[in-house]
Amino acid sequence: MTRKLHMWLVFLIFLNGYVSLSLELVILRQLSFYVGSSAVITSIIMGIFLGFMSLGYFLGSSEKIKTSNIRRILCASFIVISFIAFAASSFPLVSEYFKWLYANGITSSVIQTFIYSLVFLSIGPFLFGFNTTLLSRWLHKYNTNYTGSIMAWDTIGSVMGSLLTTLILMPFIGVNYTVMLVVCLALFAAVFTYRKWWVFLICALILIPTLVVNSSEVQRKKYGILVNNANSTISVSEFGSLRILDMNGLPMSVYDEKHGYMAEYINYINNNFIYRMPRDKRYKILVLGAGGFTAGLRDTFNDYTFVDIEHTLKDVSEKHFLKQKLSDNKKFIVQDASQYLKNVDEKYDLILLDVYSNSYQIPEGLITAEFMERIKTRIAPNGIIIMNMIVSTSFKDQYTKVFDNTFHTVFPYNTQRQVIGGHNPWKEGDIANVLYIYYNVENDGRIYTINKTPVIYDRY
Prior knowledge:
Layout: H1 3-35, H2 39-59, H3 70-89, H4 91-103, H5 109-120, H6 123-142, H7 147-172, H8 175-193, H9 197-213, H10 216-223, E1 225-228, E2 233-239, E3 242-247, E4 250-256, H11 264-274, E5 284-288, E6 303-308, H12 313-321, E7 330-334, H13 337-343, E8 348-353, H14 369-376, E9 379-392, H15 398-410, E10 415-419, E11 431-439, H16 455-459
Parallel strand pairs: 5-6, 5-8, 6-7, 8-9
Antiparallel strand pairs: 1-2, 2-3, 3-4, 9-11, 10-11
Helix pairs in contact: 1-6, 1-7, 1-8, 2-5, 2-6, 3-6, 3-8, 3-9, 7-8, 8-9, 14-15
């Protein structure tokens, strides 16, 4: 085997490993906004991905495949991979997929993930494993001692795909351009393997719609997408004076510039907790999950700290959503909510937790008893903690019941459960914004019994 052929085969093995991991990470990122990133969701995606890849390894060793046909087979394989990458990871197409599922009554995130994985994560991963076996057979034809080298270069490609995609590409050039790059690399591998005019034509037919659908211009004009990075997909929709800030498939903030209206639960918090604060001192307010910065928007007196992991939120809100600068009493810190609470020593008079990573889902670590204990250490005497939850108003699902149990384990006294909007306990699907509120005042835990009921002394 010539040195040139050896380098060519090793490069393809590297590229196959790189594209496979990059595609998997991009898909995990895109799906996380609709189905979350829990261990169950991740295990379904990785299990189906690796399962079909293993099947590809197995079938790639079939003796029916002639070595003379390997170039054409590899070319066709990379073409199919490029198309799968385009269809499975382009945000507009992913959005349409989930709209179709919801329209057909499929709302379980587990079922959604399973269907998606079977449709989009079967053929691609199968071909990744298939390609690796074919390339290995080609190398073994000349030297049977290349096994370690093959495994090493495939792993190096996977490692590079993992690190570059998550640490550099998605954060700095955006997910849409990362999708373009993955598709381009797969198409390059196809052309590099089998240089025929019809291969160039097919590649062009896949490349053009990939560049168009994932271009920032099209995503901004058609879908209103302003940011599409490793953390968030953000868009702003305008309906006259009303603007809606969408993050990761969820209407995160609402603002009517003409009438001053905001999301109903934010109006409730502003009108009942923030705008009624006395002016005896400057109160310290912590907002975990900045959204569109509508909490306390008109308050220019008290001190606000907004914490969010999405660094573009302040710029997007000021330019496209609020269309005004935040007042000087508001500062924005880019950090994970749990880490911020862990590292800060400040005590706050009001803490608002409003952290949603996707439709109706708070990151799992932020609804645990341990996290609530951490919040509890940061509340000042006579302070108030408010958690915005999207749950059943009448405890009709297990998630609502378990969260309620968790909250009252940490905050057993002085709590309030405020349903926002209308409430009908007799109907199914009574999901709404429910504010869990804790008042940090002394409570000795006494109860009234038939034997001891000193009500008159307690009341007056």
